[in-house]
Design a protein that fits this description.
The protein is α/β, with parallel strands linked by helices. It has twelve helices and twelve strands. The protein has a five-stranded mixed sheet. A three-stranded antiparallel sheet has the order 10-7-11. Pfam families: HTH_1, LysR_substrate.
Length: about 300
């Protein structure tokens, strides 16, 4: 057992390991090296005088003591986040970028309208593209645009701002070559799949079901990669309507699939609703999604 007060960095590392169950994932999340994470975790365990994790073959599992410490550590984290927000609001000069995080498809949509968004909000915007949950309570982002209302930690405000429709698309040249028409047969065609589904229902599982009429040629995770592959005539795939309908090279093969539509929620920490810059960006985003509703859900072409 070692003496001394634990420092906040060690607590932060402990929480990251507890949430990911992995030194490697915690290190990636914290942008530290794995040896550093392991060393600081051992220091904390030395101060506790006991192990905080059981080392299992493929993951780290909290011990009873580690589990008991998670709640207290989470309270410390929430307090540190509140302090950071107060300091930020006090020292704001109006030039700090507002941090926005979103999935790749939503980020792509926002980027295509970025010029108007910047002009309307009057703020610098830092847009991050990630499927991972950037924790708003820990100030990893000011605003999160989520598909479905995803639970997060802390006192958060959320509102639905739009819906994204998805449909099948193929390149017009490809469709002409194969005699493919909207609502026509897809038998024997190659498909560009999504990553292998881990759950059902899902967009990936739905597309795999449709692709039984043909073959899965490849699987591409990012929407911009599928868009490029479809435009290049590689095969048929599922794309968000705002992207497929706006590309004159592509032909939509049927109406948007109702069960695949994704609700978009704007989420931010409740305290940040009083921040003029964050509020301006949030309102500009909500306005953008409202104006482009038809393009997003596929009821308006182009």
């Amino acid at each position: 057992m070692t003496t001394g007060e634990p420092n906040w960095d060690d607590i932060r590392i402990f929480l990251a390991v507890a949430r990911t169950g992995s030194l490697t994932e915690a290190a990636r999340h914290l942008q530290l090296s794995q040896p550093t994470v392991g060393r600081r975790l051992r220091v904390l365990e030395g101060q506790a005088g006991a192990r905080l994790f059981d080392r299992l073959p493929n993951r780290l599992q909290l011990t009873a003591l580690g589990q008991a410490l998670v709640e207290s550590a989470g309270s410390m984290e929430a307090g540190a986040g509140a302090l950071a927000r107060r300091l930020r609001q006090s020292a704001a000069t109006g030039q700090e970028p507002v941090q926005v995080t979103a999935t790749s498809s939503v980020s792509l949509f926002v980027t295509t309208h970025l010029q108007g968004l910047l002009a309307e909000s009057g703020r610098v915007i830092a847009l991050g593209n990630s499927r991972a949950q950037a924790n708003l309570a820990r100030r990893e982002a000011d605003i999160a645009l989520r598909m479905r209302r995803t639970p997060e930690e802390g006192d958060l405000a959320a509102r639905r701002i739009g819906r994204i429709g998805f449909a099948l698309y193929a390149a017009r040249s490809y469709a002409q070559h194969h005699g493919l028409t909207p609502d026509g047969s897809l038998a024997g065609l190659p498909f560009i799949g999504l990553p292998k589904p881990e759950r059902s229902p899902s967009q990936s599982a739905w597309l795999d079901g449709v692709a039984r009429q043909g073959t899965i040629l490849c699987r591409l995770g990012e929407v911009f990669l599928r868009h490029r592959a479809v435009a290049d005539g590689l095969g048929v795939s599922l794309l968000p309507c705002f992207l497929g309908d706006a590309d004159d090279r592509l032909l939509r093969l049927g109406e948007p699939v109702p069960e695949l539509a994704e609700e978009v929620y704007l989420m931010l920490h409740a305290e940040l609703r009083r921040d003029p810059g964050v509020r301006a960006v949030a309102e500009a985003l909500a306005g953008l999604f409202r104006r482009e509703r038809g393009a997003l859900d596929g009821t308006r072409r182009g």
